[in-house]
Write a structure and sequence with these properties.
two-stranded antiparallel sheet, 463 residues, globular, transmembrane helix, membrane, mainly alpha, MFS_dom, MFS_trans_sf, 19 helices, ATG22/LtaA_families
């Protein structure tokens, strides 16, 4: 077997330009429309309504549907379908994203790979326009595809952070990009809120208004992905991973993954961070994906009220991400993330006690969520980038992304099971506190300086 080392050494000074950093950040803007409008606000309650139409076609308004759906012979409560769908998408992602990361590290044009994955996910998101009546099965399939492509494209995207930003700049660059994402997602949500509030005067049914909002998120994702793809198009692969000529793409990728699993024990602090991230990010993702369901079913808010809620979260998160980036520049990203985890625990406890129908109190909870949400996620990304071995950025970010958006399989499964056992979403949301506490305790054990040195990376001024 002939083996050659394919190393395309780029000049960091050429890649780490403001132009590249600005173009890179636009992918947060592009995909946040799907995450916000579809993933956070609309799809869970809408999928639940489609399933309710199928399971209880004669259900009167205000009545509870006690019938079960049957999926491959397994009984599933109507209210648990959405969190279970996220769980399935997560399990599929956890397997597939590892291969995506290995392929991206071997790909000569990672930006084109980013675009292809993003546009496939955007197509699935756009096809959600055709969900209506009792067609929840198609909804499940499209959610799985869109979430998988979102995670896969973000593997490639996150890995590029190491290419376009110096270690001392990554907290700032990551936070600004995340803030841009919240701003973009919020702007589209404003437009969708207008449609949902004025659908009758526009000559639309309420269902059509929701379907058009789902379509807009997919189109937004597709169109704005052009900016990073064009702006970063000259970046080439720089992997130092050996390429086995006779193994082919699949064989070489499997071989690379086998080698990586064998070597990963050399980076104990990277692994410890990933374990911590698995827990506290599962808590974050479960809160994000279940907030609309909790607000609808437990607190009695309608879709318009939930849209306003998420809109508040989006715009507050824009400033929250920038603020957390500023704080990290003073005390370090690790301490800032730990502080954010403590805040998350308090916010979830607060949400548990919100009275049914108390929309003003719910908005206070939304402000608190927005303050802490963007900062913890943006800084987790930049913090992890310091621990990634040089030359295997995409592959290691695939581990990270398997525990990121849409991969809260412990959290969403615990949420769904708790609801099915108790019949209430309040204890289901409260169970996420366990994930924050465990994740925070594990994160305290990560010694960043040692991990950065073990990965062979340049030490930043402050971590």
């Amino acid at each position: 077997m002939t083996t050659t080392s394919q190393v395309l050494r780029a000049d960091p000074a050429v890649e780490r330009t403001r132009g590249h950093q600005r173009a890179w950040g636009w992918y947060d803007w592009a995909n946040s429309a799907y995450v916000t409008t579809t993933g956070t606000v609309l799809i869970s309650p809408y999928l639940t309504s489609l399933a309710r139409n199928d399971a209880c076609p004669d259900l009167a308004a205000g009545e509870t549907c006690d019938a079960m759906l049957s999926i491959l012979g397994v009984p599933v409560a109507v209210g648990s379908l959405a969190p279970y769908t996220i769980t399935v998408a997560t399990i599929v992602s956890a397997l597939v994203l590892l291969f995506v990361g290995a392929i991206a590290d071997r790909h000569p044009r990672p930006v084109w790979l980013l675009g292809g994955l993003a546009w496939t996910g955007a197509a699935a998101a756009s096809l959600m326009f055709f969900l209506e009546g009792t067609n929840w099965q198609l909804g499940v399939l499209l959610i799985v595809i869109a979430n998988l492509c979102l995670g896969a494209s973000t593997v490639v995207y996150d890995a590029l952070l190491n290419r376009i930003a110096h270690p001392d700049d990554r907290d700032k660059v990551s936070s600004r990009a995340w803030a841009l994402g919240y701003l973009g997602g919020g702007l589209l949500l404003v437009l969708n809120l207008v449609v949902l509030q004025t659908y009758e005067s526009l000559g639309l049914s309420y269902g059509m208004a929701i379907r058009l909002s789902l379509l807009s998120a997919g189109l937004w994702w597709a169109v704005f992905t052009l900016i990073p793809v064009i702006g970063l198009r000259r970046i080439r692969g720089t992997t130092a991973v050996p390429v086995e000529r006779d193994a082919g793409v699949v064989g070489g990728t499997i071989s690379q993954l086998r080698d990586t699993f064998g070597e990963v024990r050399r980076y104990p602090h990277t692994l410890t961070f990933l374990l911590a991230y698995l827990f506290f990010n599962d808590g974050i993702q479960t809160v994000i994906t279940s907030a609309s369901l909790y607000g609808t079913e437990a607190l009695g808010f309608d879709t318009a009220q939930l849209t306003i809620t998420i809109l508040v979260v989006q715009f507050v998160a824009f400033f929250g991400a920038l603020f957390f980036g500023f704080v990290a520049g003073r005390i370090g990203a690790k301490k800032t993330v730990l502080g954010g985890i403590v805040m998350w625990t308090l916010v979830v406890a607060f949400a548990y006690f919100v009275p049914r129908g108390a929309f003003t109190i719910w908005l206070i909870c939304a402000v608190l969520i927005g303050t802490v949400m963007g900062g913890t996620q943006a800084l987790s990304r930049s913090l992890y980038s310091q621990l990634v071995p040089k030359g295997r950025e995409s592959e290691f970010f695939s581990f990270y992304q398997a525990m990121e958006r849409g991969t809260s399989w412990f959290g969403s499964l615990a949420f769904g099971l708790t609801y099915q056992l108790t019949g209430s979403y309040r204890p289901a949301i409260l169970v996420t506190i366990v994930f924050f506490v465990v994740g925070g305790l594990i994160l305290t054990r990560v010694r960043m300086r040692e991990g950065i040195a073990a990965a062979g990376n340049e030490q930043p001024r402050i971590v």
